Amino acid sequence: MASSQVVKVLIVDDDVLTRRIYRTMLFRFGFEITEAGDGKSAVNQFLTGNEYDLILMDNDMPSMDGVEATRTLRGMGIPAKIIAITADANSRGAFLDAGADEFLLKPVNFTVLTDILKAFNFLN
Amino acid sequence: MDVSMLQRTYSDLLTSLFREGILNQQFTELQQLQDENNPGFVFEVVSLFFEDSGRLINELISNFNQQAVDYKKIDAYVHQLKGSSASIGAEKIRSVCQTFREYYDKNDIQGCYNCIQPLNQEFVTFKSKLEALFTLEQQIVAAGGSIPMMRH
């Protein structure tokens, strides 16, 4: 985990509404939330020294898609858990090959996401 | 109208929205995220949807009326609309967007064009019904009642 006890999450999606929904869900767990609107912004978060425990990663985004962002972050040695959440079912293989830990199809089922967070030991 | 009558009207309206396929289970998931820390969450996200989607649909209609139609741009708008409608459980809107993209993938321009009017109509219907639902919520709360929770 990042140095703080609080789980630090980076939500990466170009849709404001989607980010709002994820933020509300994760905030209930007491997580600390940061948002990025595309893959490049997500990578820049780490390049500027920020640390996150968990990344929720969309795929279809401007400037850098989620698969490329995932590959770039793993290439940088970023150990954060990455959950790909996308409407693009065909991107599952690419995401997992790039280093994502889990893959979910949109719209996200909150119970399924909660179970994954428990499996990652982010929830007691 | 007394509180119990307002609550019954609210429940009947919400049930009908699910029965008619205007809403799906994803909307229930959003309602379950609403609590005392986020009392206006559903209203907020649906309002965001109204604003964004209204703009997207206007862009779609405007683009289709141009001499040189940019179908790639139109597909991008519909992709965005499909994603956001799916996120809030706006099932009929999502479904028309899905149909549009299937036509687009087959290069069926006429099929794409034929989706625009139904898409706009579904959006207008959705907006009207959800606004009525939120008005009832406000009336129930103002009358001292609580919003009935539905299970679907």
Automatic annotation (TrEMBL), chain A:
Modification 4-aspartylphosphate, positions: 58
InterPro entries the UniProt entry points to: CheY-like_superfamily (IPR011006), Sig_transdc_resp-reg_receiver (IPR001789), ST_Response_Regulator (IPR052048)
GO process terms (BP): phosphorelay signal transduction system
Limits of the Response regulatory domain: 8-121
One of the Pfam families matching this protein, by short name: Response_reg
Entry keyword set: Phosphoprotein
Signal peptide: none
Protein name: Response regulatory domain-containing protein
Source taxonomy: Eukaryota, Viridiplantae, Streptophyta, Embryophyta, Tracheophyta
Automatic annotation (TrEMBL), chain B:
Source species taxonomy: Eukaryota, Viridiplantae, Streptophyta, Embryophyta, Tracheophyta
Keyword field contains Phosphoprotein: yes
GO cellular component term, pick one: nucleus
Function: Functions as a two-component phosphorelay mediators between cytokinin sensor histidine kinases and response regulators (B-type ARRs). Plays an important role in propagating cytokinin signal transduction through the multistep His-to-Asp phosphorelay. Functions as a positive regulator of the cytokinin signaling pathway. May play a regulatory role in salt and drought tolerance during plant development.
UniProt-listed SUPFAM superfamilies: Histidine-containing phosphotransfer domain, HPT domain
Name under which the protein is recorded: Histidine-containing phosphotransfer protein
PANTHER family from the UniProt entry: PHOSPHORELAY INTERMEDIATE PROTEIN YPD1
Coiled coil segments of this chain: none
GO molecular function, one term: protein histidine kinase binding
Pfam families reported in the protein's UniProt record: Hpt (PF01627)
One annotated GO biological process: phosphorelay signal transduction system
Keyword Repeat on entry: no
InterPro entries xref list: AHP1-5/YPD1 (IPR045871), HPT_dom_sf (IPR036641), Sig_transdc_His_kin_Hpt_dom (IPR008207)
Phosphohistidine found at: 79
Keywords associated with the record: Cytokinin signaling pathway, Cytoplasm, Nucleus, Phosphoprotein, Sensory transduction, Two-component regulatory system
Protein's cellular compartments: Cytoplasm, Cytosol; Nucleus
Limits of the HPt domain: 38-133
